[in-house]
């Protein structure tokens, strides 16, 4: 059994849902050496989130953003507004989706479904870079 951990810095992105599967895998080449394992991703922020969803049609990303903005618009009468009108809605969206994922590893690859990808969900209008702590656990290939 083998453990490893690394912090991945994701570049700043516009508000929206962004596929980051390839970026995560590029930063973790050691996945290829695992026969069986788990990848745990933890986003160290409260105004963005992680989720797994459709990786093929970009309309899904746009529609997710529309749906979340409909459910939690920036103009709700929030009290916490010191960081701008998009901050508290970002916290609500982050709490709804969550800041962590655990993905199985099988034969050196993430065991995602055919149409699944890892998303960084950026909920702020003017976000900074984001940090993800990636923890790998698994058995080495023979």
Which structural traits does this protein have?
142 residues; five-stranded antiparallel β-sheet; single chain; 23% helix; 3 helices; alpha+beta; Jelly Rolls
Radius of gyration: 16 Å
Estimate percent helicity: 10-25%
What is the overall shape? elongated
Structural class: alpha+beta
Query: How many runs of DSSP E, i.e. beta strands?
Result: 8
At the fourth CATH level, what is the homologous superfamily?
YjbQ-like
Biggest sheet strand order reads 1-8-3-5-6
Mean pLDDT over all positions: 96
Task: Give the termini distance in whole angstroms.
Answer: 12 Å
How would you describe this protein?
There is one protein chain. This protein is of the alpha+beta class and 142 residues long. The chain has a single domain, classed as Jelly Rolls (Sandwich). The protein has three helices and eight strands, in the order E-E-H-E-E-H-H-E-E-E-E. The chain has helices at 21-27, 58-71, 87-97; strands at residues 2-10, 16-19, 34-43, 48-54, 100-106, 109-110, 116-122, 130-140. The chain has a five-stranded antiparallel beta sheet, with helices on one face. The protein has a three-stranded antiparallel beta sheet with strand order 2-7-4. Strand 5 (100-106) and strand 6 form a beta hairpin. The mean pLDDT is 96.
């Amino acid at each position: 059994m083998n453990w490893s951990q690394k912090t991945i810095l994701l570049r700043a992105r516009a508000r929206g849902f962004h596929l980051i599967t390839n970026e995560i895998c590029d930063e973790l080449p050691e996945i290829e050496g695992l026969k069986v394992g788990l990848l745990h991703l933890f986003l160290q922020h409260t105004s963005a989130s992680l989720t797994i969803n459709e990786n093929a049609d970009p309309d899904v990303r746009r529609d997710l953003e529309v749906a979340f903005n409909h459910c939690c618009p920036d103009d709700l009468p929030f009290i916490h507004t010191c960081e701008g009108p998009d901050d508290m809605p970002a916290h609500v969206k982050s709490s709804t989706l969550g800041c962590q994922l655990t993905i199985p590893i099988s034969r050196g690859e993430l065991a995602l479904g055919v149409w699944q990808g890892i998303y960084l969900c950026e909920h702020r209008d003017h976000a900074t870079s984001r940090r993800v702590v990636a923890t790998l656990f698994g058995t080495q290939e023979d």
